[in-house]
Design a protein that fits this description.
The chain is mainly α. It contains ten helices and no strands. Helix 5 packs across helix 10. The longest helix is centred in the middle third of the chain and has 24 residues. The protein is globular. The two termini are 26 Å apart.
Amino acid sequence: MRATSRPAETPLKGAKRVPVQPRALKTRAALLAAVEEIAAAQGAEAVTTTSVAERTGVAVGSLYRYFEDRDALLLAAYDATVERIAAASVERLAELGAETDVEEAARLLLHVYLDEAEAIPAHTALLRAMRSIRTTEEEQDPANVTIIGERIAPFLKRFAPDARLDPARLHFMNVLIGNLVDLYLVTPGTGEERAARREEIEAHMLLALRRAMRPGRAS
């Protein structure tokens, strides 16, 4: 699943270093919350530095202390939703016993991730905005796809401790499933259509997972 948020010491393109003072952290969080509120109600196109400043009572000049521009605001807000979704997914996985079959756990991870993403009103709008701002190269750069080290690798180590893992195939799996998940989230459809799309993503995910756990030429 998608994970493009970076550690605080590695700012996003266009973003300023995350502050450490409690008051500054509170202000930054309020700015991101305002972006989500506007995007959920009116769409990401309604998000401007002026609209965010007005909603939070923060002067536009002060806003630029935290974010370089509108794009940086949108990207940071998107990444914040991804981090919440991923954290909720991992929390659900923590409830499973270590004896759980790895594919069963992977299915749960996928569907919890999708459920959590759909439960955040602004996520799809922010996802569309992110796609228009970040290049494909930036999105797929292994240095930026931190979910491999932070989410997938520990997940596999827990539920498939004896598996040999191929880092290149893990990266391919993350990019593949991330793009399928994003397509699912931005594509409207009936409940039946969306359920069918989930099944398709699950099938691709399980195939990629099996290959990532079996390095070398596929039999």
